[in-house]
């Protein structure tokens, strides 16, 4: 995903602020995009000052009341962080001391069923233009996200050189916190990637752009294009939740389905470190955010409890 371009009189400070955050090993791309909304607002209002003032910040805050709580919080929290940064260098600049919005108290996630993922992939082949590689690109990308749990930015940064089909591995360069890692591929994912790479090499045989996923102009596929297309696919498949299901929820789905699979025949505690490494987390606590208890997992937990109870309690009691 490309860095947003800021155009207001505070553009230099915004670029410096994002660069400062990235030096602290934060990817900070989503936040940088949120900051662009504020930058666009300043341009629209013909704001010409070199520092923030209370009036312009309050003008920006007022219309955000119509946004959903999480959207409002995200957009205003980045303004607060930026105002604090600017204050370090411009002492007269206004600081938004607190975000006038609250995060929703409930966790935001959606777990896709196997049927829904299959429907999304099938729907990709109805994307226009039908004769282009766009259909295969999005079908492969969604399948890859669902079977590896990659972050979307990581998937879009994969190059042809990062794919090792023989060893069934993907190399992720500089993921979150600038960490490199290898991610294993399932047999089905390896087969699908192999088919796509054959098509992909025919699209750009002169290797002008070595990115795995290309857009119609044979350039690296953009984050905003993927988000917009995925929302379209969600609507077409009529997939609904308490909140609109997101692309990032494929990552939640991957982790939760790993948990379900291990509940059936594996030691979960022994598997969690491997899952954390695969997902690019520095510790297990970060991975646990993505693990959700579904009806299937409850059923498996109940089954395992009953088996252990029969084996260790009932049978022991009968022997005594």
Automatic annotation (TrEMBL):
Keywords: DNA recombination, DNA-binding. Residues 106-303 form the Tyr recombinase domain. PANTHER family: INTEGRASE_RECOMBINASE PROTEIN MJ0367-RELATED (PTHR30349:SF41), PHAGE INTEGRASE-RELATED (PTHR30349). Belongs to the 'phage' integrase family. This is Tyrosine-type recombinase/integrase. It comes from candidate division CSSED10-310 bacterium. The lineage of its organism: Bacteria, Bacteria division CSSED10-310.
């Amino acid at each position: 995903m490309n860095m947003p371009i800021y155009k207001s009189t505070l553009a230099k400070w915004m670029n410096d602020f994002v660069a400062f955050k990235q030096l602290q090993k934060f990817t900070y791309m989503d936040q940088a995009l949120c900051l662009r909304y504020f930058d666009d607002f300043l341009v629209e209002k013909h704001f010409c000052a070199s520092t923030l003032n209370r009036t312009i910040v309050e003008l920006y805050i007022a219309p955000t009341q119509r946004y959903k709580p999480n959207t409002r919080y995200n957009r205003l929290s980045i303004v607060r962080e930026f105002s604090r940064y600017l204050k370090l260098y411009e002492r007269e600049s206004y600081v938004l001391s607190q975000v006038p919005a609250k995060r929703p108290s409930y966790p935001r996630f959606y777990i896709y069923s196997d049927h829904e993922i299959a429907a999304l992939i099938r729907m990709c082949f109805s994307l226009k233009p039908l004769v282009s590689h766009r259909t295969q690109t999005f079908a492969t990308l969604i399948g890859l996200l669902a079977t590896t749990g990659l972050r979307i930015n990581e998937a879009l940064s994969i190059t042809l050189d990062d794919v090792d089909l023989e060893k069934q591995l993907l190399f992720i360069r500089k993921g979150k916190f600038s960490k490199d890692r290898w991610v294993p591929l399932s047999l089905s994912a390896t087969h699908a990637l192999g088919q796509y790479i054959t098509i992909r090499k025919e699209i750009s045989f002169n290797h002008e752009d070595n990115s795995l996923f290309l857009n119609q102009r044979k350039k690296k596929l953009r984050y905003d294009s993927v988000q917009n297309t995925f929302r379209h696919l969600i609507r077409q498949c009529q997939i609904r939740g308490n909140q609109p299901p997101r692309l990032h929820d494929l990552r939640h789905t991957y982790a939760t389905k790993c948990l379900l699979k291990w509940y059936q025949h594996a030691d979960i505690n022994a598997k969690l470190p491997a899952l954390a490494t695969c997902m690019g987390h520095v510790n297990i606590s970060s991975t646990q955010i993505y693990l959700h208890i579904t009806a299937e997992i409850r059923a498996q937990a109940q089954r395992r409890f009953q088996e252990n109870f029969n084996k260790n309690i009932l049978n022991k009691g009968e022997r005594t």
